[in-house]
Structures are given as structure tokens and as C-alpha cells.
Amino acid sequence: MNNTIEHKLQLADKYSARIPRYTSYPPVPQWNGSPLQTDWMQEIYRSTRATEPKGIALYVHLPFCEDLCTYCGCNKRITKNHAVEAPYIDTVLKEWDSYSQVLPDRFKLSELHLGGGTPTFFSAQELKRLVSKLLENAIPVGEGWSVEVHPSHTTREQLETLYELGFRRISIGVQSFNKRVQFLINRIQPFDVVKEINDMARSIGFTSVNMDILYGLPQQRVEDALADIDTIAELRPDRIAYYGYAHVPWKAAGQRRYSEADLPTTRERILSAELGREKLLNMGYHPIGMDHFALPQDALSQAFKSGNLHRNFMGYTEQHADILIGLGVSSISENKLGYRQNERVVEAYSESISKGEIPVIGGHTFTPQDADISTIISNVMCNMESALPAALSDKQWNQLRELAGDGLIELSESKVKIKDHARMFARSVCAALDPQTQIDSEVMYGQNL
Ligand SMILES: C[S@@+](CC[C@H](N)C(=O)[O-])C[C@H]1O[C@@H](n2cnc3c(N)ncnc32)[C@H](O)[C@@H]1O
Ligand code: SF4
Question: How far apart, in whole angstroms, are the C-alpha atoms of residue 54 and residue 50?
Fold first, then answer.
């Protein structure tokens, strides 16, 4: 074991507090309330009519899955009843109508992402009905749309239909190939199934394949996580997301299927993260943010190199949209005024839409200083460095000096830079730069390490 890993193991306890994931700034638990509907729509109206409008980004949450994977922390609804498909798509399209009224006759669309749940729970016909309508007045810009698929629930017909609609990127949920782990997470998914979907997507013409794999799953040993990397490397995906499993049984009851004693220790998590990272770098992948890896020619690697990497609720992207419209249950939207999130429960969301109400349960209205901190947090998470805010409290300086003293960052009067080997501590750096950090295990999602 090399010194860097030994050093990180020593720091693990110190920095293993539950802190926000910083997928947004401020993080969801610190949101102060949604902007008014009229202001929200006016902002979309205004910014899509700017002289040089950037494209808008669209996210659609398709929540249904046929079987429960017990590890899963996503917002999903388990059902084998496919009669739910058509009414759900009707509802999403009705929600889309409310936006169509403020969008120009033709608008630039830079991103369209179908996430879940399992988008491929829906038939090819329903997916086509949804996407064709969303694209009706869109001028596509960018490198094609993206979709998350569950390899055991995806057909050639679905992939061909999505390809015809302009989808070029596919994200395949792999998680783990280990049989013991697969049993505990209720996701029996042999390598051949993943390979079949991968080969199918490539043969149809998808140009970018991402695979999600996890470390820290119940009864997953370090060598199991590393073996998974070797296995998917055979398929040479363009991108690999190597996530640490987040144990949040208070919001994902399926995780009670196993006990905390089944979970790897912090030491094992760090070893899996670090040895996995080393392996991926040796295989020629470039690190993107904390836990993503991309081949050098991939758009994300190129964007990182040129300082154009961005991040939104859908993940890392090389596109920079001013407006993100999230449709469907639990989706989050963003514009210059702030964030807002839709109802998290299918029935409540559908009822709200059918009554002509706004299906929003919460949000955040940006304060003047949010903009600065938000840029700083985004720089840290994308570029691993940032200028420091104009004012930092003594407490914040102390936290930063401590991180510097532990050899994780380079710190000057005006700048912070995360050392290459310390990317996994990026969230701790964000927490030190966030004047409002609250550590609260009940509301924060996921573990730092
Ligand atoms: C919506 S899910 C996957 C899409 C598809 N339903 C599937 O199962 O393949 C998106 C990703 O979130 C990640 N994820 C879900 N639960 C997680 C957890 N508890 N901790 C860390 N990552 C998680 C998984 O890697 C998963 O692939
Ligand atoms: S991992 Fe995917 S298929 Fe499994 S429950 Fe979560 S969203 Fe559904």
C-alpha cells in the first residue's frame, strides 16, 4: 500500500462526517423557499429571448421500476403494472404545456436527459410519444440526448427508437457483478446482460456509453469492487461513474434488507475508492470531479482540459445552460432566480397537475451572496480549484488551514487548489467554503468518503 493511501486512512475518521453532496449550492437542506411562479415563468420567457440565448436543458424523471434494488437511494416507484405508463406521460406532457406557453416558437435545446427510476420501464411507443412532443419546437444543439437504462429491462426496439429521436448517450446501471452482493441488493445481473446492452447500443450508433459502478455495497470486499472495474474495462465504456454507496435507510427503506454490520468499514471504503481510482487512471481514464472517469477523447475530459466543465442536477456536463427545466416527480428546475423541486410522490404530482396547480413542493430563491459561493463551489467540484470568497470567517479559515495542514489542499490568500490525490475530499473543501454548512445526519444525503 502506498503512503498516500495510508495517509488517507489516517484522515478518514476526521473527514468522514456526513456533509452535503453539493449537487447544488445551496444544498437542498438549506433551501429558503421557491421563487414566485410568475417571476419564474418570466425569467424563462426573458432568458430564452436574449440576443444570444444559451440552450435550455431538460430533465424528465421517469420513476417506475419493475423490481426493487434494495440499495437504491433514487426516487422510484416499484410496480409491474404497465398501465401506469400512459397516464404518467400524459401528466408530464401537461406539465410541459405550462412551459411551452412561455418558450419562444423555436428554442435551442442543449440537453435532454431521461432519468429514473427506469426510463426503459416505458415502452418504445410511450418514450416516442413523450420525446417527440418535447422536441416539437426544439432546435437541437450539443451532442445528442442521454438516457439511463437498466440492462435487464431494455430492448433493442427501445434503443432504436431513442436513437432515431436523437439519443446518442446511454448510461448503463451496473453497480456490482459480485453474486453475493447482487443477491443482497436484489439485482441479479450477469455480465452477459450488460455486455449485450452495451454491444447493442454501440451497434445502433450510440457514441457515448457510461457505466455506473459502486463501492461500499453490503458484503462487498475491496477486491470485489476492484474486480468489477476489471470486468467493465473489457467493454471500454467512454465514461465510468465510480460512486461510493450512500447508506440512507431513513429515506430508502429497502436498505434495511441488510444490517450495518454488512457494510464495509471506512477503511475498506477508502481502499476501494483509492485503489479503484488508481486502477482507472492506469487504464487511461481521466478523473472528472470526485467520482467520474472519462476516456481522454470523451467530451467531459476535453471540457475539463479547457476549463469548460459544468455541473448541474443531472451530473457533469460540457454544456452550459442558463435554464434547467425538470419535468416529472421530484425533478429539480433551475434558473437565475433559484431552484424548485416537484412533488416527490406520483399521486400528489399527478393530482396537482390535473387540477392545473404548480406541482412544486419547495425551492430556493438566490440571495445576492449565493451567486458568488455557488460559482466557488462549482469551480471546486469541476476544476478542483477556485478563487476564495471575498470574506471568510475565522472558522472557515481554520477549516481550510486544517485541510492544508493535512496535505489535501494548496492554500494561498486568494486561492484554494485540491491536490490531485485528494479529490475524494472535495466535499470537505466545499463545506469549509460554505458559510452555512450544517452537519445533520438526518437531512444530509450520503457519506463524505
Ligand atoms: C436511477 S439509478 C439507475 C438507473 C436504472 N434504474 C438502473 O438501475 O440501472 C441511477 C444511479 O444512481 C446510483 N445510486 C442509486 N442508489 C445509490 C446509493 N444508495 N448510493 C450511491 N449511488 C446510488 C446508481 O449507481 C445508479 O446507477
Ligand atoms: S437501481 Fe434503478 S432499477 Fe433499481 S430500484 Fe433504483 S432506480 Fe429502480
Answer: 9
> Where residue 373 sits, what CATH number does that domain have?
1.10.10.920
The answer, yes or no, to whether any atom of ligand 2 lies below 6 A from the CB of 185, is: no
Residue 382, domain member (yes or no): yes
- Whether 242 and 291 have beta carbons less than 8 Å apart is answered as yes
Are β-strands 338-342 and 107-116 bridged in parallel, bridged antiparallel, or unpaired?
Answer: unpaired
Question: 256: domain range?
Answer: 31-324
pTM over 0.90: yes
Cell numbers for 9, please give them. Answer: 486512512
Strand stretches in 318-389, DSSP E: 323-327, 332-335, 338-342, 360-365, 385-387
Is residue 3 located within the same domain as residue 58?
Answer: no
Beta carbon of 116 within 6 Å of any ligand 2 atom: yes
Measured at the alpha carbon of residue 218, what is the angle toward residues 7 and 177, in degrees to the nearest 5? 100
Q: Which ligand 1 atom is at minimum distance from the Cα of 244?
A: 21
Write the pLDDT tens digit of every residue in 49-78.
987 778 899 999 999 999 999 999 999 999
Q: How far is the CA of 263 from the centre of ligand 1 (A)?
A: 17
Cβ neighbours of residue 140 closer than 8 Å, sequence gap 6 or more: 109, 166
Please write the tens of the pLDDT for every residue from 382-420. Answer: 999 999 988 899 999 999 999 999 999 999 999 999 998
pLDDT digit string, tens, across residues 184-198: 999 999 999 999 999
